[in-house]
Design goal:
By secondary structure, the protein is an alpha+beta fold. The protein has 3 helices and 3 strands, in the order ααβββα. It has 2 domains: about 5-50; about 55-105, no CATH class. It has helices at about 5-45, 50-55, 85-105; strands at about 60-65, 70-75, 80-85. The chain has a 3-stranded antiparallel sheet with strand order 1-2-3. Strand 2 (about 70-75) and strand 3 (about 80-85) form a beta hairpin. It is elongated and about 95 Å long.
């Protein structure tokens, strides 16, 4: 055999072997990524306090205000803690209440 033929044969074998290794590596990386995403999703979901999302803020416990920048503030009357929302959130809430009051006034 000539050197060129040996080199071509060796490159063909190495190329075939690298393709197989590449496919296995791709599958392994995909599986590891999937497991990591699943694990961290569970961890992040457990960190969210469910009671925080399920609490109802009544008018006796909460005040609502708009600051000079047009941001919505929800103030806990008992603790004085407050949450600031973007101006668009305040406008959306206002529009909902305005629509509700309008439809109530026209009898719909």
């Amino acid at each position: 055999m000539k050197t060129k033929e040996i080199l071509i044969l060796a490159l063909a074998r190495v190329s075939g072997w690298l393709k197989k290794v590449g496919v296995v590596a791709l599958i392994a990386i995909t599986l590891c990524t999937g497991f990591a995403i699943g694990y961290y999703y569970k961890v992040m979901k457990e960190n969210i306090n469910a009671a925080q999302w399920k609490s109802i803020k009544t008018s006796e416990k909460t005040s609502v205000a708009i600051n000079e920048r047009g941001e919505l503030l929800m103030i806990n009357r008992q603790t004085g803690d407050y949450t600031v929302y973007e101006g668009e959130v305040g406008q959306t809430i206002f529009q909902l209440y305005a629509a509700k009051a309008y439809y109530k006034s026209i009898g719909k």
